[in-house]
């Protein structure tokens, strides 16, 4: 089954154009699936029946996986068997009658404008790393990019003259996002002074680099933003995605329409963007509760 998993992942990469992160998620999910059936001494996918799939789902629940993880695993397994049908490796789909539960969309965490400004001002810009971090944070808030998109940016993706960046999102979909003046200034300062210092005559296509001359990683930037949130004293669980959510919410608060926000975020479906209308409603309720004399 390991070979079938590898073929499936290749199919998703080539035919569906899925991102590396999405492929890794599929790989982990199918890995759990294969491991479960190996322990049951079932090595052929054609021998897996409907009741076996139910046993697998029961196993996931007993392992205390989150509902989000279980739903994602169901989706992965169903897609795996669809692929096996397409390739005529199996004659029937044992997951055909397995329904995918609808997950309640959680309202993302958002920072206030004051909190965003606080974290943006935290890096020590007198150091090459500090200036780089300041540029990354400012850029993330200015564009609403995903952290994976941020760290994969190349020098040539940014057009300083016209003030926009070309972002390659999920499924390698390309979109153009404006870069604000403050982010552009900070980025230009980083490019002129900090980046050459970090590279030390080495070459790199990556926009944001480390002292090793390599591009910044998702994990590396994740640690940085956690550290800056701690230093700035923000009592919230801050991640790179929090800045993305704050970018969208603050635009909505100032009158931007959902369609425009959808394009900048790179959402293929506007229903995904509509979660930010819920964020705004929750904020209004909090203000009403706090300030209205009868609340």
Folded structure, characterized:
The protein is mainly α. The chain is 58% helix and 4% strand. The chain folds into 2 domains: 85 residues, DNA polymerase, domain 1 (Orthogonal Bundle); 179 residues, Intergrase catalytic core (hpI Integrase, Chain A, Orthogonal Bundle). Strands 1-2-3 form a 3-stranded antiparallel sheet, with no helix packed on it. Strand 2 and strand 3 form a beta hairpin. The mean pLDDT is 84.
What CATH architecture label of the largest domain applies?
Answer: Orthogonal Bundle
CATH domain fold name of the largest domain = hpI Integrase, Chain A
Low-pLDDT parts are none
Strand order of the largest sheet: 1-2-3
Percent in strands: under 5%
Structural class: mainly alpha
The CATH class of the largest domain: Mainly Alpha
Q: For the report, how would you describe the main beta sheet?
A: 3 strands, antiparallel
Number of helices: 13
Can you give the mean pLDDT? 84
- State the helicity in percent bands: 55-70%
In total, the number of strands is 3
| Overall domain count | 2
Task: For the record, give the distance between the C-alpha atoms at the N and C termini, rounded to a whole number.
Answer: 59 Å
> CATH superfamily membership of the largest domain, which one?
Intergrase catalytic core
- Computed over alpha carbons, the radius of gyration is 23 Å
Name the overall outline.
globular
Element order: H for helix, E for strand = HHHHHHHEEEHHHHHH
């Amino acid at each position: 089954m390991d070979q079938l998993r590898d073929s499936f992942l290749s199919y998703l990469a080539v035919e569906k154009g899925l991102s590396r992160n999405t492929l890794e998620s599929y790989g982990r999910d199918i890995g759990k699936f294969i491991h479960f059936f190996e322990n049951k001494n079932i090595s052929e996918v054609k021998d897996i029946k409907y009741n076996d799939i139910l046993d697998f789902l029961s196993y996931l629940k007993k392992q205390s996986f989150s509902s989000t993880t279980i739903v994602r695993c169901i989706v992965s397994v169903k897609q795996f068997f669809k692929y096996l049908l397409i390739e005529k490796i199996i004659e029937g789909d044992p997951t055909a009658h397995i329904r995918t539960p609808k997950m309640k969309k959680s309202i993302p965490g958002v920072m206030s404008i004051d909190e965003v400004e606080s974290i943006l001002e935290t890096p020590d810009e007198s150091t090459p790393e500090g200036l780089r971090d300041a540029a990354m944070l400012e850029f993330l808030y200015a564009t609403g990019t995903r952290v994976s998109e941020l760290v994969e940016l190349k020098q040539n993706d940014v057009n300083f003259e016209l003030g926009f960046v070309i972002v390659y999102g999920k499924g390698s979909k390309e979109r153009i996002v404006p870069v604000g003046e403050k982010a552009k200034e900070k980025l230009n300062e980083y490019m002129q002074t900090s980046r050459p210092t970090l590279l030390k005559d080495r070459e790199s296509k990556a926009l944001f680099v480390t002292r090793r001359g390599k591009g910044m990683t998702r994990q590396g930037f994740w640690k940085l933003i956690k550290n800056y949130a701690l230093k700035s004293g923000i009592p919230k669980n801050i991640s790179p995605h929090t800045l993305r959510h704050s970018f969208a919410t603050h635009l909505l608060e100032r009158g931007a329409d959902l369609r425009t926000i959808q394009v900048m975020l790179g959402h293929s479906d506007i229903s995904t963007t509509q979660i930010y209308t819920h964020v705004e409603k929750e904020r209004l309720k909090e203000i009403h509760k706090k300030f209205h004399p009868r609340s």
